[in-house]
Give the backbone structure.
Amino acid sequence: DLCEEVADCRIMINLVIRTSKINPDDIKRRKKKLKPEFNKYLFHNLESVNLESVIFELANLQKVICKSARKRKNKEDIIDKIVAVELSFEYLDNIGVIREKDVEKWYGCKINRMKKRINKHNIV
């Protein structure tokens, strides 16, 4: 389910932002800068974008963000990966593939489970 995957990614992004001490304003500024490039990419590759590839890319980006944070790469690399995911969310919302209400429902269901795992494994 795409909404479930989006919720998983958002949970991971929030965790990485907190643990890496990333300022949300830095993400907003980078998103504003990268959005034209993202839109250009979509324009040139729209025929190859399908729901299955989007789900795969979101899952992959979630793993990359987590690995980047664990390896303590510089914050700019982590911010770029977060922005790529967030721009993908905006695109999916704009074309009507996901609904924010559905994502929030999944987010609420999964956040408590994720918090328990984090505490159990002493991730934070």
User: Anything to note?
Assistant: The first helix runs from residue 2 to 19. DSSP finds five helices and no strands in the chain. The mean pLDDT is 80. The CA atoms of residues 39 and 91 lie 9 Å apart.
